Amino acid sequence: MTATAEEREIIADWQPRHAALFGHERLKLNHRLRETGLFSRSALGRLIEQCPPEELGLESMCHETDKPDRIQGELGGSSGEDAIRAIEKGRMWMNVRRIMDWSPEYRALLDQVFDEFERRMPGFSTFKRNIGVLISSPNAKVYYHADIQGQSLWQIEGQKSVFLYPRSSVFMDDRNIEKILLRETDEDLPYELWYDDYADEIVLKPGEMITWPLYAPHRVQNHDCLNISVTMEHWTREIRNAYAVHYGNGVMRRTLGIKNASTRDRGLHVYPKAASALLWKRLGRQTSGDVVKQRHFRIDADAPEGLVTYA
Ligand SMILES: [Fe+2]
Description:
By secondary structure, the protein is α+β, with helices and mostly antiparallel strands. The protein has helices spanning 5-8, 17-21, 41-50, 80-89, 99-102, 104-120, 174-181, 237-255, 273-286, and strands spanning 27-30, 56-61, 68-74, 92-96, 127-136, 141-145, 150-157, 160-164, 200-204, 208-211, 218-222, 227-235, 297-299, 307-309. The chain has 2 domains: 18-235, Sandwich (Jelly Rolls), CATH 2.60.120; 237-288, no CATH class.
């Protein structure tokens, strides 16, 4: 039996109202990424093995604080599937980055997903699309932060809670957005426990994806199981304009001491075209992979915590 066009869509439960909500409100949808066959353990194992070392982020979490302690690791001689097993028993994060740059199959999938969104949302036009895979240990956390581009999170295996906070200056003021955009902070923001009284907890299960408003603060907590998730990023003109305005205001605050810069993101009143072009070039550089000079451990599924540290 051949699948109907609707059955081939990646988003399984799209409704017309979602077009108005996308990017502006939190939106949880059902997806069919797993049915592509690209996210089985064996397919992901091959993907990990193909990943250029500079795009394979691997960090272990600090025992004392639970925070990623910026200890960087490498695959060593481990196979991709063994690496997944090691993460399942350990306290690690693996980030397979910029897959569209080095795997045509996944690039085609990324295009398919955004073609589908663009077909369903007239006027929604994206560029600088990005796809990555996050494989993280049971109970791993991502701390309170915000992202600079449009972002969606697609669950493949395991369960996690995504805590989404209101997009208001109480939870993150413009100065903190500027800090993120100017790369003065590692995207962690001031966080108070009482913020959680105002957060929505969304449990993400395999086959579900979520998006949220631009710059909305969030944090993520894995449940007690291995988590495999796909992250997709995108830019639209609207997102780029918001970036440029906040960025421009951040520069003005720092160089001219202007206190009440406007954050209206329509029109080009804040930055001249030439400055915008320069900024865009800079942004292109910012999104490339991290340069890791030293690796501190190698992954090992047979080791007690799934890794062997180098002396
Ligand atoms: Fe995020």
